[in-house]
Design brief:
The chain is an alpha/beta fold. Helix content is 38%, strand content 17%. The chain has a domain of 226 residues: Rossmann fold.
Length: 335
């Protein structure tokens, strides 16, 4: 078994590597990214990094994708490489489309050509859903809203699945990921903005007071360890009944509640629209995801609620406690 993880030096990529190295000790894990992991990331991975092969890969380069997938003898792929630029400038839009859509197509072409691939997961986003209608939970059939390059490129990548699964003879599924927080999160070139939870964690550990302004918003906050474990389940579940799966906690949590939890842990915070450090915007809200498909097909259940997840994120960032990884749900290898 040889598992290729693209975007492996990114936030979710590193969590995926950690999860797979523990749950799949028999596998060869190949971590591919345009940028090598930092010394800090390797240190955080700990012993897990010893069983991982790191390779340089630009997923926008079709030839490089073809070579790596073939040379590795890849049997399973988690395609996590992506960019999440928030700027609307033409150059940012072009980079987003090339990384998110062209990159996905290059990986699928390489998997088809290699002939050995059994299953491929494409990481998509809950950002493809329309946020109209309040905070009512949404399932995979809910209306989409593709009004920015990030959402439209993720959806376009999903639409590639039908033709490539038919041509390649392997199973392809897309995982629409909820807003994530947890270990390995930091600002990077392809993901410049960190989550509210990471910003609050930094302020707490640095004893730095915060002023919060704006209007409350709700998100389906999901611990990165849970996301990695759900992807592990999808990669090896005996049968996938759908092409698209929501991956999240299934619970909406308001920004105000999160800030209150941090205040209870000692963060000095006040609410003020006068020169705030953090401005909450209702447009940043995301509907909670219905995860019944994921649970039915894999047996996955999140380990972290928002309270235990924040406690873990704080403890992990302060170096007192390693993040919990391991077995979730069904664990049988299959096509």
């Amino acid at each position: 078994m040889k598992i290729l993880v693209t975007g492996a030096s990114g936030f979710l990529g590193l969590n995926i590597l950690r999860q797979l190295s523990i749950s799949r000790p028999e596998a060869t894990i190949v971590a591919a990214d345009l940028h090598a992991p930092s010394a800090e990331d390797l240190c955080a991975l700990g012993r897990a990094s010893r069983s991982i092969i790191f390779e340089s890969l630009d997923v926008r380069d079709q030839g490089a994708c073809l070579r790596l997938v073939a040379e590795v003898g890849t049997t399973h792929i988690i395609h996590a490489a992506a960019v999440t630029f928030s700027e609307s400038a033409a150059i940012a839009d072009d980079n987003t489309r090339k990384a998110n859509l062209t990159g996905a197509e290059n990986i699928l072409k390489a998997a088809t050509a290699a002939k050995l691939v059994q299953r491929c997961l494409l990481l998509s986003s809950s950002g493809v859903y329309s946020q109209r209608g309040g905070n009512v939970s949404c399932d995979e059939e809910d209306p989409l809203q593709l009004d920015n390059e990030y959402a439209s490129s993720k959806r376009a990548a999903e639409l590639l699945m039908n033709s490539y699964e038919t041509a390649g003879g392997f199973v392809i599924a897309a995982a629409r990921i909820a807003p994530a927080y947890g270990p390995f999160e930091r600002s990077r070139a392809t993901r410049p903005h960190v989550s509210l939870i990471r910003r609050l964690t930094d302020s707490l550990l640095e004893n730095r007071p915060l002023r919060i302004g704006g209007t409350d918003c709700e998100r389906d906050w999901t611990h990165s360890g849970d996301i990695a474990a759900a992807l592990d389940c999808l990669l090896f579940s005996p049968r996938l009944s759908y092409r698209v799966y929501n991956v999240g906690s299934g619970v909406g949590v308001s920004a105000r509640k999160i800030i209150t939890l941090f205040a209870e842990k000692g963060l000095e915070v006040c609410w003020s629209d006068d020169a705030p450090d953090i401005v909450l915007d209702p447009k940043d809200g995301r509907k909670p995801l219905v995860i019944e498909r994921l649970q039915h097909d894999t047996g996955f259940t999140p380990r972290f609620d928002i309270c235990t997840g924040i406690a873990d994120a704080i403890a992990t960032e302060s170096g007192r406690l390693p993040v919990a990884y391991g077995n979730y749900g069904q664990r049988k290898s299959t096509r």
